[in-house]
Amino acid sequence: MPYPPLPAAPPSDIHRLPHGLRTLIEANHEKGLYWDDSINPQKGCDPVSTGCTNCFMLDAVKKRYSKMPGSPYFGSDGSAMFFPKELDKLRDDFDPKRYFSPIMGDPYHEDFNDETVALYHEALRQAPYHWIYSFTKRSERLAEVGREIEWGPHICSVVSVENEDYLYRIADQWEAGALRNGVSFEPVVGEIRDTPELRRLLSPPGGRPLDIMFIGGESTKNDNIRPMREAWARTLIRVGLELNVPVFFKQVGDVDFDGRRVGAKKAGRVIDGRTYDALPRGCVDHLVRAPYIAEAARRRSR
Ligand code: SF4
After folding, report:
1. DSSP 252
2. Which residues pair with 271 in a beta bridge?
3. Could you state, in order of their start, the residue ranges of all structural domains in the chain?
4. What are phi and psi of 9, to 5 degrees?
5. pTM score of the predicted model
6. Of 11-15, 32-36, 62-66, 126-130, minimum mean pLDDT range
7. Which residue has better confidence, 57 or 100?
C-alpha cells in the first residue's frame, strides 16, 4: 500500500553560517553524519538494552583493539575506562564545529564515579565555541546527576531510544534539565507508535519541544540485524515535523525498505525523494557566534 507523502521540512537557515563551516556541515550531511568530529574520553562499555546488541564498539574492542599492541585496549575485556586527556581536544580546537561525544562509550556508565562525570561535563562546558552532542542510554543516571550539572547552551544532551520500551529515557532526560535536548531513534529496532504518550514526551505541554530528533536503521556486519521498516521511519518523521521538532533522518540502515541487505550506503537516506537534514534548534545561532567566542578563548590561551 503506498504511503501518504511526508511533509517537507521547514526551510533551513544553514546559509547564515560562515562559508567554511557550512561547507563542512553540508559535506557531512551528504554522508549521513550529523556531527563533524568526535571525542572518545570514555572507551569500553556494557550493554544495557536491546539497542546495544550490535554496538560496533563492543565488537571492535573484542575483535580488534584488545589484540592490538599499543591500543589502550590491548589485553582488555572491554570494561569502561576514562581517558581525561581526550577531553583536551575540545579545548584546543578553536575551529567551531559539531562534536559527537563519546563515540565509544557512555558518560554515565556505572563504573564512573560522580567526580569523573563532573570532570567530563566541565570540559564540555569550557568549550563553548563548539556545539556538542553528549549521548547516553543510561538516562536514569543522567536524571540523577543532571540537576548538578552546569549545562551550557552549546551542550545538547541526547538519549537513545530503540523501541517503545525505552521511551522513559526521554522523560528522564527532561528531568536532567539540559538547555538543549535531543533523542536518537537509532537503531530503531521496533515500532514506535504515534501515541499521545510519544507526543507528550517529544513536546511536553507548556514547554519547548525537543531540539532535535535523529532517526536511523541498524547497520552491522552481524547476522542478527534488525531492519527498520519504512512505516516506522515515516511515523517518527511525521510526528517530529508535526510537533515542530527538527528531524535528521540519518539512514535507512543496511537493509533497505524492500528487505534487501544492500548496505547502508546503498540503502541511503532519501525518503519521498528528499532528505531530512535539520540542524538542532539554536545550533545555527550558536555557530554564527562561535568564531568570536573561539577567538576570545584563543587569545586568552596564549
Ligand atoms: S550504551 Fe552505547 S556504547 Fe554502551 S554498549 Fe550500548 S550502544 Fe554500546
Report:
1. -
2. 274
3. 34-42+81-301
4. -75, 155
5. 0.96
6. 62-66
7. 100
Output the average pLDDT for the chain: 95
Q: How far apart are CA 223 and CA 159, in angstroms?
A: 26
Distance 227 CA to ligand 1 centre (A): 19
Q: List, chain by chain if needed, residues with CB within 6 Å of any ligand 1 atom.
A: 45, 47-48, 52, 55, 57-58, 105-106, 137
Tell me how far the alpha carbon of residue 285 lies from the centroid of ligand 1, in angstroms.
Answer: 31
Please write the tens of the pLDDT for every residue from 137-154.
Answer: 999 999 999 999 999 999
How distant, in Å, are the alpha carbons of 20, 128, 247 from that of 292? Answer: 15, 11, 28
CATH number of 34-42+81-301: 3.20.20
Residue 147 to residue 26: CA distance in whole angstroms: 35
* pLDDT tens digits, 212-248: 999 999 999 999 999 999 999 999 999 999 999 999 9
Neighbours of 266 (CB within 10 A): 11
Name which residue sits closest to atom 8 of ligand 1, judged by CA. 55
Which atom number of ligand 1 is nearest to the Cα of residue 49? 6
- Decide if 159 contacts 189 (C-beta within 8 A): no
pLDDT digits (tens, 9 = 90+) for 251-293: 999 999 999 999 999 999 999 999 999 999 999 999 999 999 9
- How many whole angstroms from 30 Cα to the centroid of ligand 1? 25
Q: Which residue minimizes the CA distance to atom 3 of ligand 1? A: 105
Using only C-alpha atoms, what is the Rg of the chain? 19
Q: Whose CA is nearest to atom 4 of ligand 1?
A: 45
CA of 58 to the centre of ligand 1 (A): 8
Q: State the DSSP string of 55-124.
A: -HHHHHHHHTGGGSTTSTTTT-----EE-GGGGHHHHH--S--EEEE-SSS-TT-TTS-HHHHHHHHHHH
Tell me if residue 29 falls in helix, strand or coil: helix
User: Ligand 1: which residue has its CA nearest to atom 6?
Assistant: 52
Question: Ligand 1 centroid to 183 CA: how many Å?
Answer: 15
